[in-house]
Amino acid sequence: MEYRFWPSFQKDLKKIRQKNLKEKVIEGIEAVKRDPLSGDGKAGDLAGFSTYEFHVAGVSYRIRYVYYEEFDELVFILVDSRESFYSRSRRLFASVKRLMG
Fold first, then answer.
1. Is residue 63 within 8 Å of residue 88, measured between CB atoms?
2. Is the entire prediction scored with pTM above 0.70?
């Protein structure tokens, strides 16, 4: 399986300073790579995306990704706390839709 990180995901990773949070993100990436279909699929305006959820120090975090089964390709989109995760996901998805026409 091929996988890649969108620029938004790369920026999110760079911003993480807490060692235990960064370790959990890496564990999440590895878990998704092992089984990309295990994530929580989304509906509505976020259809096609999946989410991996984890917690650090009582805070809920999410990893947004998309798995293209027909190409066996996994794309990590963003990682953030649940608090701002969904608004960022919608903004990012809207900008991608505008770019694609």
1. no
2. yes
